[in-house]
Automatic annotation (TrEMBL):
PANTHER family referenced in this protein's UniProt entry, alphabetically: MONOACYLGLYCEROL LIPASE, MONOACYLGLYCEROL LIPASE ABHD6
InterPro entries the record matches: AB_hydrolase_1, AB_hydrolase_fold, AB_hydrolase_sf, PcaD/CatD
Limits of the AB hydrolase-1 domain: 21-242
Signal peptide location: none
Keywords recorded for this protein, A-Z: Hydrolase
E.C. numbers: 3.1.1.24
Enzyme class: hydrolase
Pfam families the record matches: Abhydrolase_1
Protein species of origin: Actinomadura monticuli
UniProt GO MF annotations: 3-oxoadipate enol-lactonase activity
Domain of life: Bacteria
The protein's name in its UniProt record: 3-oxoadipate enol-lactonase
Length: 262
């Protein structure tokens, strides 16, 4: 008999002052919560920083069944409930950004401010994601890890291997399930329903989600969203150009989320 599918429970970590307003940080497909280490010192000075790992990523358990981006967002809502957090800001990279988009649509009263980094309302052809999921289930994460540096960074970035190592350590089923989740995600027609003050950050040289056709659609579709394009940055812009991305995020949060309405 097949075991019932259990709700996703994120593996998480908290940093920063216990009484500060909460900021949730979502990682990208194939990385762990440590993707956000470049921003952590600056954010943890003024905010309670809640980082999480995706299923099968960063040592978190693999999922026991299929997942959607909306279910991933539901896991964040449950996590906030368990921590007694009514409202939080949310910042996410790539898949982590999609989770933030879904969260802001499903529970607008929970999202005080939103930062979407190198992400999209729709991640291209769903068939390509399902093909990638099938490849990883068949051959493991090795094939996608071998080409990750070229997808994630510009050729000038010298520290790619530290991030590729996160992908090599990812559980194949966790990675594949997240690919399937991306295949089924399309928030394009619903972006007008996001009410949180939103900053969209794009990497100028991002290959998977370039500014044109991805970040610009988010910025155009979300009411009053602002778009910031980071020069010389690839897909993991917060890792490749950490200072520029940190400045954009902290300025946005300083303006929109100091916890006054907690």
């Amino acid at each position: 008999m097949t075991a019932p599918h259990r709700p996703w429970k994120p593996r998480h970590r908290l940093d920063g002052p216990e009484d500060a307003p909460v900021v949730v940080l979502g990682p990208s497909l194939g990385t762990s919560m440590d993707l956000w280490l470049p921003q952590l010192p600056a954010l943890a000075r003024s905010w309670r920083v809640l980082r999480y790992d995706l299923p099968g990523h960063g040592g978190a358990p693999a999922p026991d069944g299929p997942l959607t981006v909306e279910e991933l967002a539901g896991g964040i809502t449950d996590l906030l409930d368990g921590l007694g957090v009514e409202r939080a800001a949310y910042a996410g990279v790539s898949l982590g950004g999609a989770v933030g988009t879904a969260l802001a649509l499903a529970a607008p009263h929970r999202v005080a401010s939103l930062v979407l980094v190198c992400t999209s309302p729709r991640f291209g052809d769903p068939a390509a994601w399902r093909d990638r999921a099938a490849l990883v289930r068949r051959e493991g994460v090795g094939p996608v890890a071998g080409s990750a540096a070229g997808r994630w960074f510009t050729p000038a970035f010298e520290d790619a291997e530290a991030y590729v190592a996160m992908l090599r350590a990812t559980d194949p089923e966790g990675y594949a399930a997240c690919c399937d989740a991306l295949a089924g995600f399309d928030a394009t027609a619903r972006l007008g329903g996001i009410s949180a003050p939103t900053l969209v950050i794009a990497g100028e040289r991002d290959v998977p989600t370039p500014p044109r056709g991805h970040a610009d659609r988010l910025a155009a579709g979300i009411p009053d969203a602002r778009l910031a394009v980071v020069e010389g940055a690839g897909h993991l812009a917060n890792a490749e150009r950490p200072d520029a991305v940190t400045r954009e995020i902290t300025a946005h949060l300083d303006r929109t989320w100091r916890g006054h309405d907690r």
